[in-house]
């Protein structure tokens, strides 16, 4: 059976969708197989934006008509599970990392039903985003470190990377996400930071400047993956929302949760502070989704799913 071109409604895109019976590979291998069954007429793949910018989240929806045994989205060399929202309908979120090179990019979904493989491919075009340049002057104690401190910094970074690489189920997040503070006025996402004249890594989160003690809340249901003290982040919390989606909260005055604890959307997890490498009270708030570091302020307008 040949691959199909499905023409979707307004705001969606044309997706190449193929059905692969057991023991077969590509759609080309299926051609001429009279025993191959036609796919469900409702089979479709859609994304929220075909031309996302650097740092933008992209929602993915795969409709199969009937429940699937499993389904995954493939993006940037990794795969992550999709969440079933109703029988035969699956959603996920991927991210265009803030350093993703502009140009064509391929996203695909693979699913299995009764031993047969369903696959769909979406061709995206990543658009360059202009990020601000932020020049900071900090005292040497905040920029130059002894060997013991450098070792601590590296170990903390490695530990955090390990946590953020985990893919857990069940998927607990739902849209809409909730801003982490009542007065959410984000700044500085993607800023190319120049500290004391030296260019540093881009700022992969937003800063929200609020009075010390302002309550901080979880943006969605999840499990606390980290709650502790870090050299740069100070008192920090990381919440795992399942399926490769994480929220990160730094510089807090304190936190009220512990590792392994389940939290609900809107639960208070700590308070704004100035711990770690911070020049004043603010919340450093970041979000990682499958494939990248995104501008978290772009999550909140997403429709309910």
What can you see in these coordinates?
By secondary structure, this protein is mainly beta. The chain folds into two domains: 123 residues, Immunoglobulins (Immunoglobulin-like, Sandwich), CATH 2.60.40; 126 residues, Glucose Permease (Domain IIA). 7% of the residues lie in helices and 40% in strands. It has two helices and 22 strands. A hairpin with an 8-residue loop joins strand 1 and strand 2.
What's the helix and strand layout?
Layout: E1 4-6, E2 15-20, H1 27-30, E3 44-47, E4 57-63, E5 70-75, E6 78-81, E7 83-86, E8 89-95, E9 103-113, E10 116-126, E11 133-136, H2 147-164, E12 192-195, E13 198-199, E14 206-208, E15 215-217, E16 222-230, E17 234-240, E18 246-255, E19 262-263, E20 268-272, E21 283-289, E22 292-294
Parallel strand pairs: 11-12
Antiparallel strand pairs: 1-2, 2-10, 3-4, 4-8, 5-6, 5-9, 7-8, 9-10, 12-13, 14-21, 15-20, 16-17, 16-19, 17-18, 18-20, 18-21, 21-22
């Amino acid at each position: 059976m040949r691959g199909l071109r499905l023409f979707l409604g307004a705001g969606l895109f044309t997706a190449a969708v193929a059905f692969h019976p057991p023991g077969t590979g590509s759609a080309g291998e299926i051609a001429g197989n009279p025993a191959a069954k036609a796919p469900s007429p409702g089979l479709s793949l859609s994304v929220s934006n075909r031309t996302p910018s650097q740092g933008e989240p992209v929602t993915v929806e795969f409709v199969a008509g009937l429940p699937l045994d499993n389904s995954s989205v493939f993006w940037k060399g990794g795969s992550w599970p999709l969440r079933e929202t109703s029988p035969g309908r699956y959603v996920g979120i991927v991210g265009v990392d803030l350093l993703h090179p502009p140009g064509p990019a391929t996203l695909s979904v693979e699913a299995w039903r009764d031993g047969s493989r369903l696959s769909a491919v979406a061709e995206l075009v990543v658009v360059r985003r202009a990020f601000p340049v932020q020049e900071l002057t900090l005292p040497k104690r905040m920029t130059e470190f002894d060997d013991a401190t450098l070792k601590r910094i590296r170990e903390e970074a490695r530990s955090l990377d390990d946590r953020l690489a985990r893919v857990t189920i069940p998927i607990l997040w739902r849209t809409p996400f909730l801003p982490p503070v009542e007065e959410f006025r984000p700044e500085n996402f993607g800023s190319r930071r120049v500290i004391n004249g030296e260019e540093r890594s881009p700022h992969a989160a937003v800063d929200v400047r609020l009075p010390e003690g302002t309550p901080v809340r979880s943006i969605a249901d999840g499990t606390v993956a980290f709650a502790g003290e870090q050299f740069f982040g100070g008192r920090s919390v990381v919440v795992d929302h399942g399926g490769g989606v994480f929220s990160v909260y730094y510089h807090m005055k304190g936190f009220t949760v512990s590792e392994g604890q389940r939290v609900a959307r809107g639960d208070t997890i700590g308070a704004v502070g100035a711990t770690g490498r911070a020049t004043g009270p603010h919340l450093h708030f970041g979000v990682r989704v499958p494939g990248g570091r995104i501008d978290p302020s772009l999550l909140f307008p997403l429709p309910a799913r």
